Amino acid sequence: MVYIELLNAIEERRSVHNFQPREIDSAILKEIFYYGSYAPSHYMKEPWNVKVYQCKGKNRFVENILASYRRLGMIPDDDGPKALRVAESMRSFLLQIPHHVVIHYEREEDAIRNEEEYSAVCAFIQNAQLAAWEYGVGMLWTVTPYMHDPIFLREIGLDAEKDKIVAVMQVGYPERIPQDKGRTAITEKLQFINN
Ligand SMILES: Cc1cc2nc3c(=O)[nH]c(=O)nc-3n(C[C@H](O)[C@H](O)[C@H](O)COP(=O)(O)O)c2cc1C
């Protein structure tokens, strides 16, 4: 039995950079992350946690990002015209993204267990991206410097000692679907070892 729809979703899903200016219903987002949660996880730990910033909830989140960028030197740390201009441009870019979704888990002290948890969260993310595609919803998986800023984590209610952010997904209905970049022939990366 070949599930053509599943295979099409895997092949046709694209990372979306431009979104329509409208929110996705929370019930649909719930469905998407429900399917995400069918990802495998060792010991059934289901380590993923999800925070969805949307509507007015984006305002403080975006200010936290800008404050982090200032600490990290990506925005000049003063009130000069350049700093204000850069901050305003980043603010309006970030605010027009309909949903920012922070995906995080609690670190394990043991390195192997930690790797298992991290891997399971990545599987969760890809499941959610594929489910989203079925609902006509686009996502962009981002890994950004502020995810490593302990003050940023504290400001969004996490503890950098305990919690790790794996990704911040930008989510919305696609305004434009990027072209398929294709993939390297898998035969270049695939070895069968028979004896
Ligand atoms: C761990 C991870 C981090 C990524 N971070 C970014 C990012 O910060 N910015 C971005 O534009 N795309 C990011 N991407 C998306 C990739 O650029 C994208 O998946 C790749 O170009 C292939 O395009 P496709 O997803 O449309 O097939 C990330 C993807 C992964 C898996």
Automatic annotation (TrEMBL):
The entry's keywords: Flavoprotein, FMN, NAD, NADP, Oxidoreductase
Cofactor or coenzyme needed: FMN
Nitroreductase domain span: 10-173
Superkingdom of origin organism: Bacteria
InterPro entries according to UniProt: NAD(P)H_nitroreductase (IPR052530), Nitroreductase (IPR029479), Nitroreductase-like (IPR000415), YdjA-like (IPR026021)
Pfam family, one: Nitroreductase
Alphabetized PANTHER family for the sequence: NAD(P)H NITROREDUCTASE YDJA-RELATED
Family: Belongs to the nitroreductase family.
The protein, known as: Nitroreductase
Organism: Virgibacillus xinjiangensis
